UniProtKB/TrEMBL annotation:
Biological role: Acyltransferase required for the direct transfer of medium- to long-chain fatty acyl moieties from a carrier protein (MbtL) on to the epsilon-amino group of lysine residue in the mycobactin core.
Classification via Pfam families: Acetyltransf_8
Protein name according to UniProt: Lysine N-acyltransferase MbtK
Domain of life, per lineage: Bacteria
Lineage of source species: Bacteria, Bacillati, Actinomycetota, Actinomycetes, Kitasatosporales
Limits of the Acyltransferase MbtK/IucB-like conserved domain: 21-68
UniProt pathway annotation: Siderophore biosynthesis; mycobactin biosynthesis
Membrane-spanning intervals of the chain: none
InterPro entries found in the cross-reference section: Acyl_CoA_acyltransferase (IPR016181), Acyltransferase_MbtK/IucB-like (IPR019432)
Species, as recorded: Streptomyces polychromogenes
Length: 195
């Protein structure tokens, strides 16, 4: 699969065109390094990563059978990082009862000096719509740091329901779930097909 291949597009009524393509751990590493080491990305836990560290991490992710990484664009400019994973095999093994159709998700919005109102919500809506565009996805699972109250509010805005805290090796996380129906109800989007 070519890394320039657009996998998903969505037009946000207020903010315009969003798209997602596979991440290239080599050509995208410098961009990602600037994002994941930025002070606003503290919960990404890569603050001290070097450029080779970032490249190695995303080579590992893109080669993994149960983990994928994607680069998201807004109006054709890189704007966010998205990861999906199988929680039956990664991140949450033994911490909850995984169900068929569960998909784990992480996302990171690029740091900016000129924030746009509603942008992060448009990004998470795009990420969720992309995940639910796959008919095999029944439920999205997230495990953000319990202290990350901003992302908890965003998650709830797109339909996530907190299950409760779980202890992971690197953090105390708030396990939360969002079904297709809850996402559609929260966002008034139909996710049956790519937009």
């Amino acid at each position: 699969m070519s890394t320039t291949e657009t996998l998903f597009t969505r037009t946000d009524p207020a903010l315009g065109a969003f798209s997602i393509r596979p991440l290239d751990p080599f050509s995208d590493a410098e961009l990602l390094h600037a994002w994941v080491t930025h002070p606003k990305a503290a919960f990404w836990m890569m603050q001290d990563a070097t450029l080779p560290d970032v490249e190695r991490e995303y080579v590992r992710i893109t080669a993994h059978e149960h983990h994928q990484a994607f680069l998201g664009f807004h109006e054709d400019r890189p704007a966010f990082l998205m990861e999906s994973y199988d929680p039956a095999h990664l991140e949450l093994v033994g911490l909850y009862d995984a169900q068929p159709g569960d998909v784990g998700m992480h996302f990171l919005v690029a740091p900016t000096d000129t924030p746009v109102s509603g942008f992060t919500r448009a990004v998470i809506t795009t990420v969720m719509a992309a995940l639910f565009a796959d008919p095999a996805t029944a439920r999205v699972v997230v495990e953000p740091d319990v202290r990350n109250t901003a992302v908890h509010a965003l998650n709830e805005a797109v339909g996530f329901i907190p299950e409760g805290p779980v202890t992971k090796p690197e953090k105390e996380a708030l396990l939360s779930f969002c079904t297709r129906a809850r996402f559609e109800a929260a966002t008034a989007l139909t996710t049956g097909v790519s937009i």
